[in-house]
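Quick one, probably user error.
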């Protein structure tokens, strides 16, 4: 009996099933690889996050915010960092993500 004799026993249902689960496997494998990369990038940003948080709590940020409110800053200056809600929500999301990662790590 050679390999070609076994082909007769393969059904379309079996081929579909294997192909379906292969797609799931590939999708999950890709998502995990992307997640690992994202977590590594997030961890590498910790010094930048701390620096941004320090700026947000500083007199410099307050002055920059006040000058923006007074329309002193150039109109074409990108200044999402001066959005009170924006920077607060970003830093809060960082804290929540940190908690989630630590919680998952603690459960290992």
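Nope, works fine. Designed sequence:
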């Amino acid at each position: 009996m050679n390999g070609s004799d076994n082909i007769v026993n393969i059904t379309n249902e079996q081929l579909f099933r294997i192909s379906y689960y292969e797609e799931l496997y590939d999708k999950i494998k890709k998502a995990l690889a992307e997640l690992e990369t994202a977590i590594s990038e997030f961890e590498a940003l910790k010094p930048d996050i701390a620096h941004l948080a320090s700026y947000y709590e500083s007199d410099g940020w307050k002055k920059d915010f006040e000058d923006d409110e007074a329309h002193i800053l150039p109109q074409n200056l990108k200044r999402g960092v001066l959005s009170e809600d924006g920077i607060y929500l970003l830093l809060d999301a960082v804290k929540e993500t940190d908690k989630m990662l630590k919680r998952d790590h603690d459960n290992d």
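The chain is about 75% helix and 0% strand.
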